[in-house]
């Protein structure tokens, strides 16, 4: 999943982006890499886009954490080792239970 742009569908955590991207592709024939076309669909057909979002079921716990980790790989500064959890360069920080997390304060 590295190198693939992500869409923020919600404010605090990933939603089922993969499902949303597939739905946008099958319904409107656009993908996030088609920036102008994607924007036109979102701008000119907002109720239909909102309908797609509403129709997507909540992700499973596994899907949620997989997508969260993929987003963190793109959005977090992973250039140093984390003294809090021991994550190495290029790895996301983890909680005590091993779930992906945003960078710890000292990273």
Shape: elongated
Query: What gyration radius follows from the Cα positions, in whole Å?
Result: 16 Å
What is the first-to-last residue Cα distance?
24 Å
* Spatial order of the strands forming the largest sheet: 1-2
Q: Biggest β-sheet, characterized?
A: 2 strands, antiparallel
Helical segment count: 4
Strand content: under 5%
Contiguous uncertain segments of 5+ residues: 6-13
- Please identify the structural class as seen in this structure: mainly alpha
Secondary-structure element order, N to C: HHHHEE
Q: Could you report the average pLDDT, rounded to the nearest whole number? A: 84
Helix content: 40-55%
**Total strand count, please?**
2
Oligomeric organization of the protein chains = single chain
Describe this entry's structure for a reader.
The chain starts with 16 loop residues before the first helix and ends in a 6-residue tail after the last strand. A hairpin with a 5-residue loop joins β1 (93-94) and β2 (100-101). The model is unreliable at 6-13 (pLDDT under 50). It contains four helices and two strands. It has 107 residues and is mainly α.
SSE arrangement:
Elements: H1 17-28, H2 35-44, H3 46-55, H4 61-75, E1 93-94, E2 100-101
Antiparallel strand pairs: 1-2
Highlighted features:
single chain, 107 residues, two-stranded antiparallel sheet
Short description:
44% of the residues lie in helices and 4% in strands. The chain is mostly helical.
